[in-house]
Amino acid sequence: MLQTDFQSLIQKAIDSKTKPVGSLGRIEALAAQLARIQNTLMPVAASCGLTLFAGDHGMALAGVSAYPQAVTRQMVMNFLGGGAAANVFARTLGVDVEVVDCGVAGEPINAPSLLSRRLGAGTANAIERPAMTAVELDKALANGRAIGGDSDHDTACFGEMGIGNTSSASLVAAKILGYPVADLVGRGTGLADDGLKRKQALLEAAAGRTPDSLPADHALMEYGGFEIATMTGAMTAAAGAGRVVLVDGFIATVAALCARELSPGCAANFVYAHRSAEAGHARVLEALAAKPLLDLDMRLGEGTGALLAWPLVQAAAAMLRDMASFESAGVSGPA
Ligand SMILES: O=C(O)c1ccc[n+]([C@@H]2O[C@H](COP(=O)([O-])O)[C@@H](O)[C@H]2O)c1
Ligand SMILES: Cc1cc2nc[nH]c2cc1C
């Protein structure tokens, strides 16, 4: 069937439901997207998994974050213990959580429930040199594809943890979009004014090492993080496998931007969950013409925004699948 014909069938199905035309607002657009992704007028949103990608950044040691690098590792232990915001939200929603070490600083973490896909003990300091090699990038993308492609869930939430990764994400996005990095720098975990100034100067120095504009793979190699690159691969494969991908905050949206550049078809499966309070997020969303579902002033990461959007995905699918039509319920249509 032609795409336009299927789109008009979807619209007809949505408009036949017992509600004034258009009255469920953006839930209707979301339902239509789910129908397109699953190629059915009976979309299913039955199960969702959260994969948390953790990695460290050489840049963090230059002082671009309000928190020390050690927090990445400590938070991985917290995820494994079930005590982080992402765990708590996931439990309330019945979502499974898996944690991936993509390259946390220090010795490998020895925990049976942790998936080890380490590319090293953190990236190189991208202020001075490329964050990773082409071989490391390829491996991270491949690791991500294997993780994103292997799941029983119809919906995937991807979250990240990495002290310094707002710096990495700002630089990657600036190079892909051809924006000055200053337009995309924010307070991250909560830098005060003097810290923000220092971060801005360091990121401008980092950006100055390379041309104003870079393709996504070069941008990732120069400025990316192991967790961001692994998430990028996971997003392409999850979308390729027909899953709905709930895109979290600033860092996850930059991974989605990379995924779209590397594998354009995957964008159709992306649902932008929320607008983070991190300064650059609104700009990157704008560049993607993406209107996220939620705006809760959150800026945590960990997939917390994506998790909170999961019930909306479930509601949208149930609306299209289960709501009565004017005809089946014997309700009069517009006069
Ligand atoms: O998701 C977001 O929009 C977001 C915005 C600001 C900070 N974060 C989280 O905070 C960490 C990065 O902040 P920073 O200041 O260390 O670059 C990293 O672990 C992210 O998960 C996440
Ligand atoms: C405590 C803490 C938890 C986080 N979760 C994601 N990024 C984080 C950064 C910090 C500092």
From TrEMBL:
It is an enzyme of class 2 (transferase). The active site is at E302 (proton acceptor). Pathway: Nucleoside biosynthesis; alpha-ribazole biosynthesis; alpha-ribazole from 5,6-dimethylbenzimidazole: step 1/2. Catalyzes the synthesis of alpha-ribazole-5'-phosphate from nicotinate mononucleotide (NAMN) and 5,6-dimethylbenzimidazole (DMB). SUPFAM superfamilies: Nicotinate mononucleotide:5,6-dimethylbenzimidazole phosphoribosyltransferase (CobT). It holds the Pfam family DBI_PRT. Belongs to the CobT family. The gene is cobT. It catalyses: 5,6-dimethylbenzimidazole + nicotinate beta-D-ribonucleotide = alpha-ribazole 5'-phosphate + nicotinate + H(+). GO terms for molecular function: nicotinate-nucleotide-dimethylbenzimidazole phosphoribosyltransferase activity. Keywords: Cobalamin biosynthesis, Glycosyltransferase, Transferase. InterPro entries: Nict_dMeBzImd_PRibTrfase, Nict_dMeBzImd_PRibTrfase_bact, Nict_dMeBzImd_PRibTrfase_N, Nict_dMeBzImd_PRibTrfase_sf. One of its GO terms (biological process) is cobalamin biosynthetic process. Its EC number is 2.4.2.21. This is Nicotinate-nucleotide--dimethylbenzimidazole phosphoribosyltransferase.
